[in-house]
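Troubleshooting log. The previous structure file for this entry was overwritten by mistake, so regenerating from the original sequence record. Sequence copied from the archived sheet and checked twice against the printout by T.R.
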Amino acid sequence: MHPELTLVTGAAGFVGRHLCRHLCRHLAGQEYDVRGSVRAGARERRDGIDYMASGEIDETTDWRPLLEGVEAVVHAAGRVHVSRERAPDPRAAFRRVNAAGTARLARQAAEAGVRRFVYLSSIKAREVEQKGVDAPGLDPYQISKYEGELALARAAEGSAMETVVLRPPLVYGPGAAANFALLARAVGAGWPLPLASIRNRRGFIYVGNLCDGIAACLTHENAAGRVFELSDGAPVSTPAFVRAIATALGRPARLVPCPPGLLRLGAAMIGRPATAERLIGDLVSDDRPIREALVWRAPVALADAMAASVAEIEPNRR
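Regenerated output below.
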């Protein structure tokens, strides 16, 4: 299957920007016509991409103008996880965008005759699937992403639209913000990091590898109806990930020992327990199904991916 026109939502976001460029360059040797949705702005064609505004994403968004002529959708837009949530009702705020907003887009996509819909979920949705949405300790973001998966399945039921759900782990790459950028700048500045005692296993994915996996899911017949986890390959520990950043920056990794329990305690005292867990805990992607079904492997190795990822950060190091 080779869609002639692909809609990428969240085209102004980190993953969306990279994905639009990736699809424009080539996909299975064939150029794609890409339409990117952004929240606001006049319609324009730039760098081979047709940008259109969707407005705010929720249960009322009218996607029909953006879906005209579209054969495939990659839904990368959504309310993202933040360390300090300011919404008065975080669960409702996440659900409105990531669940109800996804349901609205999926229904209108099915009605418009879209052949395949790829939904960018999160590796954290797996825990919700295993425990249930009302289990204690789950955060609103991961609940809403899993509810988005369910909403997509319901919207596509009885239609000809094929669905694919992707659950990536932490995505890094050029222009990545939040935790990756902070970590890379800390390494570049030579700050000592109390991470040497951590012995964990986590999955990561370079944004270029994620785009390649998405492209495979747009075309491969074996992707239809599947939920896939994907990653760069073998899991790595947090200290190993930091060392990869340091190597790419040409800097030493100044890792100092500190008991993980003490790190957890300190993070809890400042109201950031989730941040500590992302550094200390295990979270391994099971990418065996996508490797077997699609014969897919992440094409960019960790060292090369990290070199590309820190290129924009390197001039700022001291």
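The chain is about 40% helix and 15% strand. Archived copy saved in two places this time.
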